[in-house]
């Protein structure tokens, strides 16, 4: 245990930027209204981190839950227009509460509402990053939420666990803290037979670890443990750490950053992923797929090679040059990598299985030797 505590302290001692995701269950009371006392306590903790020298971003759920509380609704709306309307009512209440609480300590709440399109577009992605870094220099705390009032299924993140992971990778933040209604990841279902224990440290978000996710959601929340593990996988693969902890524990944030034995720590991969590769691998929604043979799979995953037409066996979807696509194994279809393609789906359909020297004979031209260059590819 002492070795694990030392490892936790060693990793967290390198943290300079922190993204704090706060779930709906942490922010609202049983009747769904905003728990102002709870937000005030969390605001004090965030300010304390700022005074300790950390740059902090809050990714806050609660707009829909807050709106439900304001309207006296007990059941989460079932249609998109209702959800958007309730979010519009709740978001104003939520951010005003944050701002009021931060102002008690001389800070402002800086509201940032995002959709997936803001991350997909490279210029908007970089603009968001620049805005947040500028806010770090001011007496402001960025409070990020999904723009629920305009989001539709095609551009939704699905939950704020995913959004917090994207923000962490956007900023190259060394730590994502997911504050939930549970103490961390349990080694068994917590309400089953036998006493469940929190797993203090996880080296890799493997399939075995993912099976420990239990599908328990609050009436006003969206994500369960599964979405938190997906977020942890995304962030740790990029080379940053994640902690899942109980948001109602007194002084939880300070305990986390100081390496205290609290919650579940997910260890980062040793090599940090470059910012542009994070955008390619984990931010852009793939427009299609190519399936590759075992030889190409080995060359990509083990030898660090680019993807050539000769290794492609089939194409799925319609996409253009410059789009992000997934590279999958031909057998089980698991995603090996993602990257920016140099050729369209129609072109790849014609040259799949061809050697590089035969591309010009088939197409009448050759734009690139590679379908996806290694520099524009991320192994997942």
Textual characterization of the structure:
It contains 15 helices and 13 strands. The protein has 380 residues and is α/β, with parallel strands linked by helices. The protein folds into two domains: 2-277, Carbamate kinase (3-Layer(aba) Sandwich), CATH 3.40.1160.10; 286-379, Archaeosine Trna-guanine Transglycosylase, Chain: A, domain 4. An eight-stranded mixed β-sheet has the order 3-4-2-1-5-7-8-6, with helices on both faces. Strand 11 and strand 12 form a beta hairpin. The longest helix has 24 residues, at 80-103. It is globular, with a radius of gyration of 22 Å. The two termini are 31 Å apart. Residues 217-223 have low confidence and may be disordered.
List keywords for this structure.
single chain; Archaeosine Trna-guanine Transglycosylase, Chain: A, domain 4; Carbamate kinase; 8-stranded mixed beta sheet; globular; 5-stranded mixed beta sheet
Largest sheet: 8 strands, mixed
How much helical structure, as a percent, in the residues? 25-40%
Number of separate structural domains: 2
Tally of extended strands? 13
Structural class: alpha/beta
Sheet with the most strands: spatial strand order: 3-4-2-1-5-7-8-6
Annotated CATH architecture of the largest domain: 3-Layer(aba) Sandwich
The string of secondary-structure elements, in order, is HEHHEHHEHHEHEEHHEHEHEHEEEHHE
CATH superfamily of the largest domain: Acetylglutamate kinase-like
Regarding CATH, which class of the largest domain? Alpha Beta
Radius of gyration: 22 Å
List segments where confidence is low: pLDDT < 50 over at least 5 consecutive residues.
217-223
The percent range for strand residues is: 15-25%
Number of helical stretches of at least 4 residues: 15
CATH fold topology of the largest domain = Carbamate kinase
Overall pLDDT score? 90
The rounded distance between the terminal residues' Cα atoms is: 31 Å
Overall form? globular
